[in-house]
Amino acid sequence: MIDQEIISLFEQRNEQAISESEQQYGALCRSVARDITGSAEDAEECLNDAMLAAWNAIPPAKPKNYCAYLLRLVRNAAYNRYCAAHTLKRNAANTASSLDELAEIIPDRGDVVDEVERREIIGAINRFLQELPIKQRDLFVRRYWYLTDTVALAKMFHMTESHVRTTLTRLRKRLQKYLVKEGLL
Amino acid sequence: MNPKSFLGMMSDISDEYIVSAANPHSKPIRWYHVSAIAACIVLLMAAAIYPKLRIQTPEIAVPPESVAEVITTTTSVPESAEHSETQTATSPIQTTFNSVTATVNTTASGVNSATVTETAASIQTDVPTATNPAQTDAAVVTDPPKTDAPITQTAVTIETTDSPDIPVIIEIPLWKGIVEYPERVSESHLYSRFSLSTGDMDAWMRTLYGIPQDYDLTQNRCLLIDIDTFYSNAVIIDCQPTPNGLTLIVAYLEDGTKLNKTIHYAMPIPDNMTLEPDNCNANYLEMTDEELIQEMEKEKLELKTGNEQEGLQ
Question: Among partner residues B5, B9, B15, which is closest to A65 by beta-carbon distance?
Answer without folding.
Answer: B15
